[in-house]
Specification:
Radius of gyration of chain A: 16 Å
CATH topology of chain A: TIM Barrel
Order of helices and strands of chain A: EHEHEEHHEEHEHEEEHE
Strand content of chain B: 15-25%
Largest sheet of chain B: 5 strands, mixed
Helix content of chain A: 25-40%
Strand order of the largest sheet of chain A: 7-4-3-2-1-10-11
Distance between the termini of chain B: 11 Å
CATH topology of chain B: Udp-n-acetylmuramoylalanyl-d-glutamate--2,6- Diaminopimelate Ligase, Chain: A, domain 1
Strand content of chain A: 25-35%
Number of domains of chain B: 1
Shape of chain A: globular
Distance between the termini of chain A: 23 Å
Shape of chain B: globular
Helix content of chain B: 40-55%
Oligomer: heterodimer
CATH superfamily of chain B: HprK N-terminal domain-like
Number of domains of chain A: 1
Largest interface: A-B, 13 and 13 residues
Number of helices of chain A: 7
Structural class of chain A: alpha/beta
């Protein structure tokens, strides 16, 4: 077992707030350059760039996990990290069923495009991706776990769009695998991770977490969050 | 003015917490950020929000609020209503928006 460095919250250019430079290829190159062993792509309420980034990651020798940053009805953002391609397809279907299809204005919020490996635009999403789903935070948690995923409330220490800001505190019956913080965490009841929430290339790896793992993978990460079999969170860094 | 007077004058729906309809209303607070309400709502205030999560009840009770009014025709969850009944802290509802309801409420008690 040895330490692996991970940044598990990176937006691609699909997110309206994501810079157009954030192509899967650029993300992989930057992540390698920053010495990351594992990343996760997490676009707002969508998973359309997961497979391409995973493929490019394999070619470049860096682990890419599939994820989405889901907005629940309370305007709480949570990372849902999924185990494999099949779970992504089925989770995307769940997202589609709970989407509110709010109209999108690219001039104000930015473009929402899906690209292929040659960086050609293959699809444009015409509804506002980050809008709250018609699913409560409990339903998001349930869906994440039903798909074998990890449920991680995002940037909980931000004044808004995090679970503490929106809901005052974390309900004790919500099954939380970890929480993501932006600042440095004090004493929390949950495993704490830090990620960049990168929207532009230079932000990749600006915050990260080191994990003690057998190898950088979804199943090892899940074990580390549960402190199972010697796996654990080592430290947070910037 | 009591919670029941507001219910009658504005025509609000009573979802739960009927026992608390006699509570005295001393003011109002409108916010959908629960952390904000936790820090700023005054005791005895009615709280206007579109949030329906059960944490609403915990915070209403923590701040000793007189009632919660959910706007825009949203419905509280079963667990929210159960806690409201348990604590005798009414959860009310209206189809009005927060803006319209706050205006009416302000002219009644402001």
């Amino acid at each position: 077992m040895k330490p692996f460095r991970a940044d598990l919250h990176i937006h691609t250019l699909l997110s309206p707030c994501g810079s157009l430079e954030m192509s899967p290829r650029e993300i992989i190159a930057r992540a390698k350059g920053r010495g990351l062993d594992m990343i996760a792509v997490a676009d707002h309420n969508s998973t359309y760039h997961c497979e391409l980034t995973v493929t490019l990651g394999i070619e470049a020798g860096i682990t890419v996990l599939r994820a989405a940053e889901v907005t629940s009805a309370e305007d709480v953002h949570s990372l849902v990290i999924l185990p494999d391609e099949a779970s992504v397809i089925s989770f995307q279907d769940w997202l589609d069923r709970h989407c509110t299809h709010m109209p999108h204005n690219p001039d104000i919020f930015g473009d929402q495009v899906v690209i292929d490996r040659d960086e050609n635009i293959i699809r444009e999403i015409n509804y506002f991706l980050p809008a709250a789903l018609n699913a409560t935070i409990d339903e998001v948690e349930e869906a994440a776990h039903n798909h074998g995923g990890l449920f991680i409330p995002a940037h909980i220490d931000r004044p808004a769009m995090g679970i503490i800001g929106q809901l005052g505190f974390i309900p004790d019956d919500l099954f939380v695998d970890a929480v993501e913080v932006v600042g440095m965490a004090g004493d929390l009841l949950y495993p704490v991770i830090r990620n960049s929430d990168a929207h532009m290339p230079e932000h990749i790896g600006r915050r990260f977490t080191d994990y003690m793992l057998e190898n950088p993978s979804f199943s090892e990460l899940a074990k580390a969050l549960r402190s199972e079999g010697g796996r654990h969170i080592i430290q947070h860094g910037r | 003015m009591k919670v029941t007077d507001i219910v009658e004058k504005i025509g609000l729906k009573v979802f739960s917490g009927h026992e608390g309809l006699g509570k005295e209303v001393t003011g109002g607070y409108a916010s959908d950020l629960l952390s904000d309400v936790m820090g700023h709502a005054g005791s005895g205030a009615v709280w206007i929000t579109i949030q329906t999560h059960r944490n609403v009840m915990a915070i209403a009770s923590l701040r000793d609020l007189s009632a919660v009014i959910i706007t825009c025709g949203e419905n509280p969850g079963d667990d929210t209503m159960a806690q409201s009944n348990e604590e005798g802290l009414p959860v009310l509802g209206t189809d009005l928006s927060t803006f319209e309801l706050a205006g009416r409420l302000y002219s009644l008690i402001g």
